[in-house]
Amino acid sequence: MTLSVRIHDHGGPDVLKPEDIDLPDPGAGEVRLRQDAVGLNYIDVYHRTGLYPVPQLPTPIGLEGAGVVAALGDGVSELRVGDRVAYASPPLGAYQAERNMPADRLVRLPESIDTQQAAAMMLQGITVEYLVRRTFAVKKGMTVLLHAAAGGVGLIACQWLNAIGATVIGTVGSEAKAELAKAHGCHHTILYNSEDVAERVKEITHGAGVPVVYDGVGAATWEASLSSLARRGVLVSFGNASGAVTEFNPGQLAKRGSLFLTRPTLMDYTVSRKELTESANALFEKVLDGAVKIEVNQTYALKDAAQAHKDLEARKTTGSTVLLPDG
After folding, report:
1. CATH number of the domain enclosing 166
2. How far apart are CA 170 and CA 176, in angstroms?
3. 2-7 and 16-21 beta bridge pairing
4. 284/206 same-domain check
5. How far is CA 134 from CA 40, 126, 139, 160, 281, in A?
6. pLDDT by residue (tens digit) across 58-103?
7. pTM (predicted TM-score)
8. For residues 191 and 197, what is the distance between their CA atoms, to the nearest angstrom?
9. Are residues 277 and 257 in the same domain?
10. What domain range includes position 226?
């Protein structure tokens, strides 16, 4: 038997139910993973509420974790029992003490990165990698707008962008979060609750606007994001923390200066084994050389996942959060 936090129906945090389940032996191409830590991400909320569909109910949710290989299925040759590994990809099921996972979705961890740190950085860190290197390749000297700069993706992105040599404008919800973002490389902060974001961006850029906006918030920041872009700028809409944008007239892109819009997902940027390992290795390199520091600011016992979701949605968390199966 193993602890599994599952949903039987979609809804609020309280639909997350800790249960003991029987786990089958790993199938062909799979490994049994004994998890040390599970990453908490906003995409988990989308799966819990039904905004993003799940294959079936009941199901454990979660897409990120790290631990030790405990058993091998048939045909697995690249991993060994005892290997320390991490992942940030389907299938759903990270909210378990042990799980079976396709071996080709796992990456070995460098010795100096522990499993708790890995579970806090894989999904968010690989997201930052593809956003700033591949969706829109940020160059030294550029100025970018980053929403939710004190969040998990935000703090990693601030550091990565700062290492590139970009100027980062970040939106935050409080003075405390502004200080946190600045401590991680954000050059200018905007309090979105009390300031006009687009107006402040234009002030900071002397009227030019920015070539790219990274927006993981969605509906609440949509208008500000479009209005902050320079001519032929790119809006990278990669999340819906405030709700999805339900209606949009593409003609607005032309009206505002021939803008570009993309809605990328991590899964489309890590489709192949090669893309996955190259992205993970780029992240590991940034962490190992000190350019990006991963801070686990909150931990919860896995059985308390419902409370973790409540705090995440109430914007009470900063940086990375992990769930501990043995917590």
Report:
1. 3.40.50.720
2. 13
3. antiparallel
4. no
5. 24, 11, 12, 13, 15
6. 999 999 999 999 999 999 999 999 999 999 999 999 999 999 999 9
7. 0.91
8. 8
9. no
10. 140-263
